[in-house]
Amino acid sequence: MKGFLYGLFVPHSHDAADSIDDALEASTGGVRALKISLFVLLGTTLLQAVIVAFSGSVALLADTVHNFSDALTAVPLWVAFVLGRRVASRRYTYGYGRAEDIAGLFIIAVVALSAVVAAWQSIDRLFHPHPLENLGWVIVAGVIGFAGNEAVAIYRIRVGQRIGSAALVADGVHARIDGFTSLAVVLGALGVMLGFPLADPLVGLLISAAIIVLLWGTVRSIGRRLLDVIEPALVDQLEHALEGTPGVAAVPRVQLRWVGHRLQGGAQIVVNADRLSEAHAVMNAARAHAREHLRNLDELQLEVVPAVPATPS
Predict the structure, then answer these.
(1) Which residue in 25, 199, 255, 307 is deepest, having the highest Cβ count within 10 Å?
(2) Which parts of the sequence belong to the Cation efflux protein transmembrane domain (predicted)?
(3) 161 and 15 in contact (C-beta within 8 Å)?
């Protein structure tokens, strides 16, 4: 059960089997996912806001605020994807891919803020009770919130995994959290129907606590990207690709890091070549072989160490 929940709310951000090798295509796919999910979430939020207006449910209000914040997180991430398309300059020699990870930090901040707002509203309602109306519609709104958010979550996470974007995966997890908090709203409304009027604000507090607890997985994911943590499986893939290149005798060192949703790295390879021209050919073959195995690899700096002293061609 623990593993299932971890996979549900902290999914892996890279899917090597179905990755996109073209940087522009990957960026375009990410922007498309953000556009579609933005309009879906805004529609969901609008429907819930209408029901909040004539029901007075603080739990539904908390859920609606969180859904609206989730929709807004698509905007900075959208901007980050567009910035990432810009070519490197003398000032930004590695390009603008890090903007995507910075957008991930913004997502974390917005999620945390929405949790605080939801908690404040719920505590206020505990001390100042307000009768709920149209509970059937509150339940309908909760179901709509779950369906809309889960659809967006699945879409964002799949695209994020396909292009290697930790920030887009984090935004998908954010939507998934919203979906389950919408189900919590349904539980609160059912509790009020059964004669427990405080069920609504208590569920609002539960939503806030759940957001904070589940947010930790996203914080770790984005934090690791900023610290250049790389999945060992990707390092193994690069190492095996280089070792499998004809003429490569050994691979003493391999380095990889994410820059946004693209990979950059370097390696030291020992080559069997007695001429510089042969060593150069092996290096080019090794780089091409590496890109065949890591399709979202943009830059790979190779240091060639001849197994025997090379002579000029």
Answers:
(1) 199
(2) 34-227
(3) yes
pLDDT at 254: 92
Q: Is 90 exposed, middle or buried (0-12, 13-18, 19+ CB in 10 A)?
A: exposed
User: What's the structural domain count of the chain?
Assistant: 2
d(CA 100, CA 112): 19
> What are the tokens at 187?
């539980």
Exposed, middle or buried, 133 (CB in 10 Å: 0-12/13-18/19+)? exposed
Please give the angle made by the CA atoms of 172, 222 and 289, to the nearest 5 degrees.
90
Q: How many CA atoms lie within 13 Å of 125's alpha carbon, on the beta-carbon side?
A: 25
Question: Do 6 and 86 belong to one domain?
Answer: yes
CA proximity to 246, closest of 276, 285, 207, 292: 285
54-75 CB burial, b ≥16 within 10 A, e <16: ebbbbbbbbbbbbbbbbbbbbe
For residue 263, list its beta bridge partners.
Answer: 258, 297
Task: For residue 93, report the phi and psi dihedrals to the nearest 5 degrees.
Answer: -70, -20
Beta strands in the chain (DSSP E): 248-259, 262-271, 297-306
306 torsion bin: left (phi>0), alpha (psi -120 to 50), beta (else): beta
Phi, psi of 309 (to 5 degrees): -55, 125
**By residue range, what is the domain housing residue 40?**
2-226
Residues of the chain under the 70 pLDDT cut: 1-25, 58-59, 62, 66, 129-133, 308-313
178 within 8 A of 210, measured Cβ to Cβ: no
Structure tokens at 168: 């887009």
Strand ranges in 1-90 using DSSP code E only, listed in sequence order? none
Whether the model pTM is above 0.70 = no
Q: Are 73 and 42 in contact (CB under 8 A)?
A: no
* Burial category of 79 from C-beta neighbours within 10 Å (exposed 0-12, middle 13-18, buried 19 and up): middle
Are the C-beta atoms of 211 and 118 separated by less than 8 Å? yes
| Residue from 6, 215, 8 nearest 112 by CA | 215
* Partner residues linked to 295 by β-bridges: none
